[in-house]
Amino acid sequence: MKHHETLENGQIGRLQRVELRDVWSHEAHDFTRWLEQNIDVLNDAIGFTLSIVERETTAGDFRVDLVAEDESGQSVIIENQLERSNHDHLGKLLTYLTVFEAKTAIWIVKEARAEHIGVISWLNELSPSASFYLLKLEAVQIDDSRCAPLLTLIVGPSEEIREVGETKKEFQERDALRFRFFTQLIERSQQKTSLFQNISPSTTSNNMIRAGAGKAGVHFAYLIQAHTADVQLRINNNEELFNTFLEKQDEIQQAFGQPLDWQQLQTARNLCRITKKLENGGYRDDQNRWAAIQDTMIDAMIKLEQAFKPHIK
Fold first, then answer.
1. What was the pLDDT predicted at 24?
2. CB-based contacts of 80: which residues, under 8 Å, 6+ apart?
3. For residue 125, what pLDDT is reported?
4. Considering 105, 130, 157, which residue would you say is the last residue of a domain?
5. Which of 130, 157, 184 marks a domain boundary?
6. Do 116 and 199 fall into the same domain?
7. Which of 230, 233, 236, 216 is nearest to 185 (CA)?
8. 3-32 mean pLDDT
């Protein structure tokens, strides 16, 4: 069996980093000019081909370091910074993207601040029509060899990132719909009952609003789903009270006027809940129907409160 020869320790060089300004003393005159002539180095780092590179292109009062074309002929702007990333260059990057009507923005920096990494990731999530790349530039050499550029991709677009962005948009839209629905529900509710008089809906993700029932750990709650809704009595850490209600189940349901769903859940708070599910619509239904849906919920909540109030002590 043939063995590969192993290099002796003396034959293995040591990689060392060189200060960028020792290689390219001036950002525009040296590095940008070098990158224009060696765009293949950037192509290798980003994974696609740029061509027709133009240096210090102007549009009105704005001058971008480099403008190139990608494989589909779309404009790509490149902003170079031989220093730690800062807000000024981030602002330029976004301005140039708009002014030059580019579809891709590339930002090359000596060091990327964590907040700028986050911003570029966020832009890729929320911008389906534009792509953003953030790369770290280093200069390296082995022993006394010539210096070489090392470009490392820190952040770039991907299908996974786009999907995350779309999912976040869907969640934001859902939360906004729920907030509007609950706001209207409370306004209509206050015309008929004081139960939710001082309650405000949350602007964050939540499909439920609660109001105290006059006893610690016991609440009346509205829950809203896409096409259904619930009214509930919720009991935390009080199995004894739930059992008391359960003993009077027939009386309570007769007062409510319909059967209720009684559940004792195995949760950290030993949650028990008594629910009436309403099937006539939810927050995803036509908003012209919201008032009717909300009135059904309010009427059911009034009946639920009247059925349980005599037994809450």
1. 94
2. 27, 28, 31, 32, 35, 65, 66, 108
3. 84
4. 157
5. 157
6. no
7. 230
8. 81
The reply to whether 153 and 175 lie within a common domain is no
Q: What is the pLDDT of residues 196-218, one digit of tens each?
A: 988 888 766 588 999 999 999 99
Residue-level pLDDT at 134: 97
- Asked whether residue 3 is domain-assigned, the answer is no
User: What b-and-e string marks burial along 121-158, b requiring 16 or more CB atoms within 10 Å of the CB?
Assistant: bebbbebeebbbbbbbbbbebeeeeebebebeebbbbe
Predicted local distance difference test score (pLDDT) of residue 1 = 47
pLDDT in tens, 261-292: 999 987 777 899 999 999 999 999 999 999 99
For residue 165, give Cα distances in angstroms to 26, 46, 132: 38, 21, 14
Asked if the model's pLDDT at residue 165 lies above 70, the reply is no
Domain identity same for 206 and 275: yes
Token pair recorded at residue 175: 């939360």
User: Is residue 2 one of the residues assigned to a domain?
Assistant: no
Residue 233 is inside which H or E element, if any? Answer: strand 229-235
Q: Alpha carbon of 175 to those of 130, 189, 210, 230: distances in Å?
A: 26, 21, 17, 18
Q: What are phi and psi of 62, to 5 degrees?
A: -105, 140
Print the domain residue range for 190. Answer: 167-311
- DSSP 3-state assignment of 177? helix
Q: What percent of the chain has pLDDT over 90?
A: 66
Q: Using an 8 Å Cβ cutoff, are 105 and 50 in contact?
A: no
| Close Cβ partners of 130 (under 8 Å, ≥ 6 residues apart) | 97, 102, 103, 104, 105, 123
- SS3 assignment, position 191: coil
